[in-house]
Each structure stands twice: as structure tokens, then as C-alpha cells.
Amino acid sequence: MTSIPTIAGFDYRRVPVADGVSLNVAVAGAGSPIVLLHGFPQTHLMWRHVAADLAADHTVICPDLRGYGASDKPAEAGAATYAKRTMAADVVTLARALGHERFALAGHDRGALVAFRAGLDHPAAITHLACLDVLPTLDMWEVMRGADAAVGFHLYLMAQPPGLPEQMIAASADTFFAYFLDLWAGDSRAVPDDVRAAYLRACREAIPSIVADYRASAGIDAEHDRADREAGNRLRMPVTVLQQDWGAALGYDAAALWRAWAPDLRHETVTCGHFMAEEAPADIAKALRALLSR
Fold this sequence. Notes:
Layout: E1 11-18, E2 21-28, E3 33-37, H1 48-54, E4 59-63, H2 84-97, E5 103-108, H3 110-121, E6 126-132, H4 137-143, H5 153-157, H6 164-170, H7 173-183, H8 193-204, H9 207-217, H10 220-231, E7 239-243, H11 246-250, H12 254-259, E8 265-269, H13 276-279, H14 281-292
Parallel strand pairs: 3-4, 3-5, 5-6, 6-7, 7-8
Antiparallel strand pairs: 1-2, 2-4
């Protein structure tokens, strides 16, 4: 059997975070803690370069999200099972189990949506927040319109009721997930063959939970965002957002959308592809260190 790659020098463990749900997590380093959350179609391995860099002077915690990688994948019992509110609570519980009541949090893609929700729901726990290459869920749905929204076809596919999307994806899983690895990469060399194979295998084994994660974003996650927007809730901690220039392509001002949520914001447009922690790890580590110094 082919071995699954790991982050060199990191200790692996399973940590219970909810009833019947444990997360696979890699931990290394010492110093102020930072939790790194992966995106789609990836696992915690996407942080391997950045995590090794930050572990020189921080405690670095890299979990597989609920429903992904080697973490548990509970059956979708309702909208809350994969709500970002639930997944954010997993992360806070994980950090506490490892001895950290307060910690910095960085997320990419799906992980950034979990991080965003954690920042709103658990402001006393999150000292600094970084979100890579996303808009908040509610804003995302509001800017996706017309023919330009075709770029996000997977969002609409996985928003459908249980059954059809899972069946369609399972019929050609590797082709489906590899499509995004290829389309979104600015530099295909950034994801070596063994890591790519690990991503595809992990996704292949998690189709129902991945779809449930996306389905939640079309429903309960947007509802939670809307309630916070109407209540005037904001992110209270220093926030860094790194994004490709999707706003120019789809006709919106990404920095302005983020500023409405984050008064203490640094927004930067990157020139690398979507998988920025793998394509430009030194730049991402530098940006996270700058965030942690604020």
C-alpha cells in the first residue's frame, strides 16, 4: 500500500472535538499558537511548507477539517452537521484540547470560511485571523451572477439536495477533483505527484462529506452570515486577506466587501494561483508573520 505523505517533523494524533468526531492533526513547534486550516480539494498537507517555516517560533497546528482527509466524516444528519459554525467549534475545541485558549487562525478556501465563522462566533479565542482566496459566504453568493458565475459551477452542483451531486461526482471522482487541482494552479509543479495522489485519494473517500460541506454553504452558512450582517457583528481581531484578483474578473471590489466585516484589515492581491501556500510558501509565511506582529 502506498504510504500517505506527512509533514516532516510534525507529530500526528487524533483529537476528539465533538460526539463521535475526532480530527486528524499534525502539531509541531513551540511559542504562540497558530492553527492552519486547509481548503478544497486538499488536506492539511497543503500547509507543509508554511507550517515548517512557522514552527521555528510558533506552535503550529494543522488539522484535517471534519469530513476531509483522515478526520472523521459524520453522516449529514441535517444542515448543522457541516455548517461552518459546527466546523469552527471543532477548531476551538481542538485548540483547547491541545492547551490553547487563545490562538491565531489562518484558513485557505473552505478552511478560510471556517476561520471566518470562528472569528465571528469565538472572538475571545481568536487573536489574529487570515483568510486566503475566498469571500465570506454571503458575499460570494451575491457576486456570483450571470454567465460569469459559470466559473463556480461546482458550488451550484454541490448545493443540490442529497443524491444527485454525490452520484455524479462518484462516477468520475478523480477526474472531477483533479480538474480543480489543474484549473486553479498557477504552477502545477507546486503539488508533486505523491501529494496530488494523496489529495485525490482523500477526496475520493470523502465525497458525501465534501458535498455536505458545500451544501451547507448554500443554506445554513449564508443564513448565519446574514444574521451577523444584520446584527452589525464584525471581526474584532486583526485580519489579513490574501486573494487572487477575482474581483476584476467578476466585477466586484473584494477589499471593500472584506472591509465591511473587518475594520482592522490588510487586504493584498497575489499574483500566484489559488494554491498559494504551495505555490508561494515563503510569501504566505511572511504575510502570516506580519499578521501575528500586529
